[in-house]
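Moderator note: this is an archived Q&A kept for reference. The question asked for a predicted structure of one protein chain; the sequence and the answer are reproduced below.
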Amino acid sequence: MREDNSMKKKLFCLLLSVTLLTGCRSQDDLSLPFTNSDGLNLTANNSEAAPEFFAADLAVVPDELNHMADPEITAEASLVVNDTDNKIIYANNVYERLYPASLTKLITALVVLEKADLNDTVTISYNASHITESGAKLCGFKEGDTIKLEDLLTAFLVYSGNDAGVAIAEHVGGTIGEFAKMMNKAAEAAGAVHSNFVNPHGLHDDNHYTTAYDLYLIFHQLVTYDKFLSIINNSEYTVTYKDAGGSPVTKTFATTNRYLKGTEESPEGITVIGGKTGTTSKAGNCLILYSKDKNNKDYISLILKADNSDSLFSQMTDLLKMIK
């Protein structure tokens, strides 16, 4: 079944690329033929191919839905999707290339969940324990510490520690460079073909970018994993691991998500399950959420490049108010 879904997403990527190149017109207006790598001739309005891949299990944002204007939503890009019914509620600039900051951690998590054993024991390297970039958030792991991969991934997503990201990348991929190749392959398989990732954490690199729509596609894939949903629902996480000498170390990592901390209130009838925050000077303030309404329908909402953290969460609350 997963192989079938992967093939569907690859064909979807081809169709989406044509859609973008032709101005994001609606499906019925598209008639440009193209050939995929298997020699299959497809058209974007092909009655057999296109409906299946555009409507099966993904929401598509045509140009007429990609420039919604709401004076309260001032971030560079924003998106709300009814993920149960695959319907767009709000979209603006979702195909603009932007920096993802720590929303990068989503594709890192997808690689781990797809390729790694969460029961593995990870040894923290010198590189992971010596991130020197100013302002980089760190879990505080030391060289030689050993920790279960599941605990490391949880701390990585809940607290957003960049040292955990390096440790994950080195353990799963061998090197950051090799792991980045795995990230890009996983992104492509999810349909996120307008992204390029060069590190596992999102610390700034000019060649490290994505789009709001690509992040939706990655997140849409992630929320099929119960383990991921369980992790992002933590308001805090306490873990015990061992230092280089074998002695136990216990730390508690608090979430960066204000809705889970109780410092931001979601609209009535909306339950925030979890998500991921991100911020760098060039990416601005970013947030993606997975939520449910009173009818138990699922929603993905996303903001990229808000001016500051307060504005980020107030805009997200305004987006969540659009859910009816």
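Archived answer notes: The chain is about 35% helix and 20% strand.
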